[in-house]
Every structure is written in C-alpha cells, then in structure tokens.
Write a structure and sequence with these properties.
single chain, about 110 residues, mainly alpha, 5 helices, about 65% helix
Amino acid sequence: METYQILGLIGSMLLVMAIVTPLFFYPRYAPAMMFGGMMGFGMMPGMAFFLVIPFALGVVGSLISDETTAGILLILASVFSLIAGFIGIISFILLLISGILALRQRI
C-alpha cells in the first residue's frame, strides 16, 4: 500500500469513531435544565448519518488504484468530514494530505 492509501484509511477510521461516539455518550434522559435543552457532549445521534458519506468516499478513494480519481475522492471526503467536530478536523487534515499525495503522484 502506498502512503496516500494508508493516510486515507486512517482518516476514514477516525470518521467511524465520530459516527459511533455520539450513539453512546449523548445524554438522552438527562433533565433539560441541567444540560441546557439540546446541548450535549457532541453531535446528536441523528447527525452521525451524514458522516457515512465522507467515510464511504474516503474508503473508496483509498482502495482505488487510479491516483487521479483517488485524489479527487479523498479531497471530497476531507471537505465533507468537517461536520464531525474535533475528530472531523483531524480527519480533514489526514484526508486532505492523502488526496494531495495521490494527485502529486500523477505528476
């Protein structure tokens, strides 16, 4: 495996952590006054559905053999991963670097 593929898979696996974490740590039964209504510890569990798209783009971009297509998919996945909060920023950086590396190998 090449460097861009490994970085892309690591960035995508971080998105899996961002998908699963709100399902376990969101305060479902806490009193509304204590947590300020809809405020929680991260994303709401319904928002985790939107992280499936950058996860799929990152995995497909990491496993595809054409560097140009892989670079475009990885850069798209990096942009879409920004909705994940702090984990999304780390994933954004990894996926963006892997997309740039994939596109630079074609030159």
